[in-house]
């Protein structure tokens, strides 16, 4: 299979990730629930992942909260910062993992910046929205549909200057682009473990710049006399048993990313995205590409996007089609009615993958 859907999940998983998961299943019990060997091995495994993540994302290990996925982390962060009726600013390229929790709180939502690959538009619109008054801001680092890399450092600076707390959705950037809790000064940064960090599904991270409001309440293995959740990190946001095998695999993925370097991975992905975009344009497709683009390309052809992706799948080529759980982004780009076909490269991006995709596409068109 030619796998070009890394925006959904990294695949195939690295051998070292698989080995780490199996090792945890064989050796780890429940961390923080006992002093015997298997429990201590679990605690060591979990803390090792916290340390690796803290080093990569420039924060303290206790600021690394483990979640089930990026959506889980975003919900914790939004639950903490956003009250019903709050005024919230978002970008024009948000995922449903951001917009649905906000919609559920019936907030006053301002969408700032609707032009693809246009930093000036994003920053001007965002600054204007903050000046009108905002209680919080939530914005993505990279559009999961179009690969647009937003100017998050500048957006973060605008929020800090205005005294507006903010949440960064790093679903498509963690493990590929620099993400620093310290430098951004974010209140929260949410990310999955299974995409750019190359871990298994079911283990994500929420970086906490401030103390979160618990989304779940229960046992933490600490402060057991209290009937309130502990008032310290990471325990305050980690009720119940952690996904130790998933965290073990995530640690292996983070180690790989740290050794390779995010810059090297980003260069490979972006090179193939540019190659793919130019080839698609030459074939007459409507292609969404430009400056400030990561390793994802969306396009529209004359054929229904779902049918085109299905035809490619029959040839062993995996891409994604439709609205990609991000109708706001499609509304901004004018593709809400058609959707797009999305090609998203990953850590193993190479010329051969792009050539195989283009050959398969030529076969479909024929």
Fold topology:
Blueprint: E1 2-3, H1 15-27, H2 37-57, E2 64-67, H3 70-81, E3 87-91, H4 96-104, E4 108-112, H5 119-131, E5 136-140, H6 152-162, E6 166-169, H7 181-184, E7 188-192, E8 204-208, H8 244-260, H9 262-282, E9 286-288, E10 296-300, H10 305-314, E11 317-318, E12 320-322, H11 327-333, E13 340-344, H12 351-365
Parallel strand pairs: 1-11, 3-4, 3-5, 5-6, 6-7
Antiparallel strand pairs: 2-8, 7-8, 9-10, 10-13, 12-13
Helix pairs in contact: 1-8, 2-8, 3-4, 5-6
Q: Could you please describe the fold and organization of this structure?
A:
It is a single chain. By secondary structure, this protein is α/β, with parallel strands linked by helices. 42% of the residues lie in helices and 14% in strands. It contains 12 helices and 13 strands. It has helices at residues 15-27, 37-57, 70-81, 96-104, 119-131, 152-162, 181-184, 244-260, 262-282, 305-314, 327-333, 351-365; strands at 2-3, 64-67, 87-91, 108-112, 136-140, 166-169, 188-192, 204-208, 286-288, 296-300, 317-318, 320-322, 340-344. A hairpin with a 7-residue loop joins strand 9 and strand 10. Helix 2 (37-57) runs parallel beside helix 8 and helix 5 (119-131) runs parallel beside helix 6. 51% of the residues are buried. The mean pLDDT is 97.
